Amino acid sequence: MTESRRSVRDTTLCLIGPMGAGKTTVGELLARRLGRSHVDLDRLLEERLGMPITSLFATGREREFRRWESQLLRSVLEASPCVLTPGGGVVLLARNRLLLARKTTVVYCAVTEEEQRKRLARDTVRPLLSRGLDVLAPINAARVPHYEALAHLVVDTTGRTPEEVTMRILADLAERGWKVPCTQTG
To answer: For the segment 123-167, what is each residue's pLDDT rounded down to a tens digit?
Structure first.
C-alpha cells in the first residue's frame, strides 16, 4: 500500500457543491457507511452562535458569518477524520480552499441548475434564496470553478437518489484505495 493511499483513508471526506446538490443527506449516509461522524458545518455554526444563519444574512452580517465559518472549518479539520458537509459558499475564501485542499479528500456533488430549481422550489431556510431562485445562476458561476478545482472526485447527483450517490462515492473511493464497506449493487 502506498503512503498516499494510507493517508487518504485517514483524512476527512468533504462534500462540496451548490445548494440542493444533496451534500448533507449524502454526508449522513456516507458517515454511517464509513463508521465516521458527520459534521454539517452550517448546523454546527448555528449551534455555536445560538442563532440561525438566516438571521446573520438578514442583518447584513455575511462577512462575519464567513469569518466564523473559516474558524470553525479549521477547528473541525484539526479533529478526528469525519465526513464534512460545509455550506456551498465555503469555497469563496481562499483560506478555506487551501484548508480543504490540504486536509481533506474533496467530493464535488454536482447538480444541474434545473435540478437545483426543482429541489429548492419550496426551500424557505437558505438565506441566499430569499431573493428567489434567479440567484442560482450567478451564485453557481462564482462557485462552480472552485468546486471543480478542488475536487478529487466528482459525482453528478442529478436524477439520483441519495443512496445511489452514496454508492457511487463509495465505489469511487474504493477504486482510489479507501477501505470501504461492500458496495454491491442489485
So the answer is: 766 666 667 677 889 999 999 999 999 999 999 999 999 999 999
Within a domain: 25: yes
Beta strands in 4-133 (DSSP E): 12-16, 38-40, 83-85, 104-110
Higher pLDDT, 120 or 107: 107
Q: Mind listing the pLDDT tens digit for each residue in 102-113?
A: 999 999 999 999
Name the residue among 171, 23, 179 with its Cα closest to residue 87.
23
Read off the DSSP letter of residue 73.
H
What lies within 8 Å, CB to CB, of 29 at 6+ separation is 162, 163, 166
Q: What's the total number of domains in the chain?
A: 1
Query: Residue 156 has what DSSP assignment?
Result: E
Whether 115 maps to a domain, the answer reads yes
Q: How far is CA 60 from the centre of its chain?
A: 24
By the 10 Å C-beta count (0-12 exposed, 13-18 middle, 19+ buried), 34 is classed as: buried
Whether residue 182 lies inside any domain: the answer is: no
From the number of C-beta atoms within 10 Å of its C-beta (0-12, 13-18, 19+), residue 38 rates as buried
